[in-house]
Amino acid sequence: MKKSGEILEGILRKRGISSEEDISEFLSDRPQKTYDPFLLLNMEAGVDLLLSEINSGHRICIYGDYDADGVTSICILSHVISMITDNFTYYIPSRFDEGYGLNKEAISKIKADGTELIITVDCGSVSYEEVEYAKELGLKVIVTDHHSIDDVRADCLLINPKQPECRYPFKELAGCGVAFKMVQAICRRKGLPKSVITDVLDLAAVGTVGDIVSLTDENRTIVKYGLNKINTGNRRALKRLAEAISLSVVTSEAIAFGIAPHINAAGRMSTAHEAAELFLTSDSNVIEDKVRKLVNFNKERKKKQEEAYNRCMDMISGNEDFIVLYMPDIHEGIAGIVAGKIKEYANRPTVIVTPSGDGFLKGTGRSIDKIDIFSLLKKHGDLFCRFGGHRSACGFLMAEENLGKLKRSLNDEIRYLKRNDSRLLDKTISWEMTISPEDVTLQLSKMLDKMQPFGQNNPKPVFRICGVIPSQVRFMGDNKIHAGFTAVSENGKRVDCIIFQKAQEKKKLLTDNVPVDIIGTISEKTWMGNTRVQFVVEEIM
């Protein structure tokens, strides 16, 4: 039997956290890893311009994106600007009519509204033409963003840690993280109280987790303090949303699988303004209305997502290395989620394309860990009218006639990569440590919880337990796709287990009364006031 502390230390060491100082920082309830906001390239000039425009009485427009990162970014920046002026507004483009990022029609509307300065959040880095158009109209533009940058970038004050010239120590901030750094910078410049910064930590945590950026370094600091703010703070909007979806304690997983999908559902099914207004209002009646709408949007999203996924599954040929599916009838708002589900199932990068009208197609893609989808599509930039994204996800607009060429080109790219890595597309089962049933204790579970928040680049630790026989197997749920069982080792040690979704697929291994290896995570379950530890099985072999 291993000691719980030794197991925790071993996991941290495997993740490159080995010095006493690094371990202390990583496990601390009050992490200190954060950086001067003025280290971000153009932050000083950006804050100076913003404050100058405000002092001149000019109208400001915050231009964002329609996902959880974009919505929280707008609300974060709105909070600090509202401390200085009320002469500002925000704009979120329609996913369906405008698509991601800046567009000229929106810029014209913003100009007509009397705006003098546009400040983008979570978008705009590669919007060269749109920024030039804004400048032609006499608008000033500040871009704050975190997405990958290609050779053509917006010619304005660009604040993005991924700029090659930017010396900011941490490159993986979310869009809301960059907005949060601007709040810090504005507060320092204006001498605003620290509470203005801490007031938006909860929103920064939601956007950071929701955008699936790395939960390491400064993001870990933001999310740790943000989660504490959510669970102890008084933001009624977040409290009511959490209550509506039965969250008693909000963790990073609760954000990833509960809160963020409900925020995203507004932009997917209707308009992201519904989500933004939830966090911008103090009216309790409006909050109740918006929460109800977000819950209904998410129910609708789930229904349409399942229907679309089943249709896509019927279309997969099985011989494509890069899956490109033309789906004229799919709801555009859930194309990205379905692409992600197909990617998980097939272990192939996947793009779903939907008609955009006037002979154009919109595409949204998701990729596996080994393949940088942004870099692959960037090689074929001549096929796109608009294109953006990062390593694991992308979006684009293209002419219909280019679809066939895109399919061929992307499959050719993967075939070329497979020459150097024949197992590029093989599904891999990985774990961090092999343990025994007797190691799975409440004490270990509590120690592993210190590694929270879990998420991108800091997943929940995965363990392997070898040579156990499943006993007392109980199949559960619709179609008996889940199962609970007890895993018994050769020396008679036992651990309670549960497997979700795969029980029928693994039925033979569960019922043959022969030793198997199980791979999974450790969690706790509470029933009738009693808390017990269990092993959540992800794979049996």
Task: Give a written overview of the molecule.
This protein has 541 residues and is of the alpha/beta class. The protein folds into 3 domains: 37-295, inorganic pyrophosphatase (n-terminal core); 316-420, Diaminopimelate Epimerase, Chain A, domain 1; 429-540, OB fold (Dihydrolipoamide Acetyltransferase, E2P), CATH 2.40.50.460. 42% of the residues lie in helices and 20% in strands. It contains 19 helices and 16 strands. It has helices at residues 4-14, 20-27, 43-55, 68-82, 104-112, 128-136, 175-190, 195-198, 201-210, 217-232, 236-244, 252-269, 273-280, 284-315, 335-346, 373-378, 403-420, 442-449, 507-511, and strands spanning 59-63, 88-91, 115-121, 140-144, 157-159, 323-326, 350-357, 360-366, 384-390, 393-399, 433-435, 463-476, 482-488, 494-499, 516-527, 530-540. The strands form 3 sheets. It has a 5-stranded parallel β-sheet, with helices on both faces. A hairpin with a 2-residue loop joins β9 (384-390) and β10 (393-399). α14 crosses α15 (335-346). It starts with a helix and ends with a strand.
